[in-house]
Amino acid sequence: MTDDPAARKPLESDPADNDAVVCDRCGRPFERETLLALHRGHVHFDDLSGDELSAFEAAYADEDEAIRLFRLKALGTLILLYFGFLMVYAVV
Prior knowledge:
The protein is mostly helical and 92 residues long.
């Protein structure tokens, strides 16, 4: 990541947000456990235990699948828009 000391400071969390999970290495709060697993895998990779590594790999695979599905939906939408505008242009 970056070597900026300000980027490593723990983020201020909302006091009303008590269900946030916090990284035990840097104190950064996360909304979900999967986001914490991804953070640990990208920022603290050298310090991961076996369970944390498998959680990172599972979260990474799930996110990769979600991104792939989003890309397919976006491509389908663009194709429909293109041909829709082409048909409107042909009629008008």
